[in-house]
């Protein structure tokens, strides 16, 4: 059993397929006996992954800043909701409390969390697996840019190799579980 941190969109205007993807990942996290660690929101894909995880039988931990609790977007159904003073403390705690990370499609907040967890890994501050769930090629443009930046030596190949990439939920969790065994 592992604590799987999931980063994903908070937008409430998304097509149903993205909410379904988040929900399916949550269900599978629960079905495999893992815990969900998330940004503690109840909106968009964040709400879908947390609801799915509970449906699958997972314990859910949300880490959310007070400012977002005040906006009434907290996942109050979470088994544990940790409220932080700000966004920076929230990210630190999210990284501390999870054993591995999966990034679903998302916007600026999602990318901020992905890059924080990735840069801290490249600085050897942790050795936790990081996976990008590239459903429907959502991240193909970003991946192309990252590979180009690696070719031009802006990014070290070892750093690039830290990111696992998968297109579907089952394979994502298989890869994360294998990586957890290796670390
Ligand atoms: C008030 C509204 C939405 C609330 N916004 C957020 N709620 C919870 N968590 C959030 C929110 N915005 C960013 N986050 C964190 O970043 C990720 C999602 O960001 P994105 O820009 O939507 O990709 C997520 O993992 C959170 O930890 C109005 O709708």
From TrEMBL:
Superkingdom, taxonomy of origin: Bacteria
SUPFAM superfamilies: MCP/YpsA-like
InterPro entries membership: LOG, LOG_fam
Biological source species: Dactylosporangium darangshiense
Similarity comment: Belongs to the LOG family.
Enzyme Commission (EC) number: 3.2.2.n1
Enzyme class: hydrolase
Record key words, sorted: Cytokinin biosynthesis, Hydrolase
Catalytic activities: N(6)-(dimethylallyl)adenosine 5'-phosphate + H2O = N(6)-dimethylallyladenine + D-ribose 5-phosphate; 9-ribosyl-trans-zeatin 5'-phosphate + H2O = trans-zeatin + D-ribose 5-phosphate
Name by which UniProt lists this protein: Cytokinin riboside 5'-monophosphate phosphoribohydrolase
């Amino acid at each position: 059993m592992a604590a799987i941190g999931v980063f994903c969109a908070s937008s409430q205007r998304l097509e149903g397929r993205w909410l379904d993807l988040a929900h399916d990942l949550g269900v599978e996290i629960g079905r495999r006996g893992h815990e969900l660690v998330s940004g503690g929101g109840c909106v968009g894909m964040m709400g879908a992954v947390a609801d799915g995880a509970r449906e699958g039988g997972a314990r859910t931990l949300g880490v959310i800043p007070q400012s977002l609790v005040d906006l009434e977007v907290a996942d109050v159904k979470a088994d544990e909701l940790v409220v932080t003073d700000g966004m920076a403390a929230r990210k630190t705690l999210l990284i501390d409390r999870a054993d591995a990370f999966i990034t679903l499609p998302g916007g600026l907040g999602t990318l901020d969390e992905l890059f924080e967890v990735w840069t801290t890994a490249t600085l050897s501050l942790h050795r936790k697996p990081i996976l990008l769930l590239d459903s429907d090629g959502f991240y193909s443009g970003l991946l192309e840019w990252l590979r180009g930046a690696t070719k031009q030596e802006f990014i070290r190949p070892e750093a690039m190799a830290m990111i696992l990439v998968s297109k579907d939920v089952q394979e994502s969790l298989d890869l994360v579980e294998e990586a957890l065994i290796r670390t």
